[in-house]
């Protein structure tokens, strides 16, 4: 019984001393100061990193997407380092020996590593994605896993552990980097807009081609996504009622489908203005009485 009283007394005694509360308030104030300083340092450092890459890539259009990727990576690393320093400083302030924790981290890390292999795989894969330049922020990609497409859209951000992709329908997909298999990047090479346009078989193909050249020249300057002037490839096929014309144009990376939609719209409007006929459905009537 005396031992219990002695233990309780040793626990309660510090609470009766003003020094205890002074030390507690002092530690709380310093912890708040450390956190505020960390937030300020991270914010300033992020701005400095952004400005640094802007200066380095001024006038280099091809490096803008790459810069966004590297900015995101460097900012993440800086954030982790700052918070690590803050946490260790706070622990030291509270009288906890950080050296012992760091020394034992290797043993604990080895034990945890067996249960965190997926996280390690995600981080390693993230490094390969960034430094091999497999894709950048702003690229349009299709990502497969096990032969199945798990995400297709525009890359929003690339982190060490995961990648965020905005799909064409608006959803945000977060993928662990280690889960990515086959990656198709549509933004590396120029796109191709290829369309098949039907006209009535009675139309003069040479005349239509000459008229379309005027339209294509104006489209080249009207739409930024066309790298080359659209051109008439030739007659792809024909039937009793229609001729199928093949039109092609080179576009900026990832804009082949958009270029094709623009071509169809502009050509349809042009045909209406110029009075170029398109195939009309015909009805064939079989009169059983005449057989």
Structure description:
- By secondary structure, the protein is α+β, with helices and mostly antiparallel strands.
- The chain folds into three domains: 10-96; 134-185, SH3 type barrels (Roll), CATH 2.30.30; 191-274, Alpha-Beta Plaits, CATH 3.30.70.100.
- 52% of the residues lie in helices and 20% in strands.
- It has seven helices and eight strands, in the order αααααββββββαββα.
- Strands 4-3-2-1-5 form a five-stranded antiparallel beta sheet. A three-stranded antiparallel beta sheet has the order 6-8-7.
- β3 (162-167) and β4 (172-176) form a beta hairpin.
- α2 runs antiparallel to α3 (64-93).
- The N and C termini lie far apart (119 Å).
- The model has no long low-confidence stretch (mean pLDDT 79).
- One of its GO terms (cellular component) is plasma membrane.
- May play a role in resistance to osmotic downshock.
- It is found in: Cell membrane.
- GO terms for molecular function: mechanosensitive monoatomic ion channel activity.
- It is a multi-pass membrane protein.
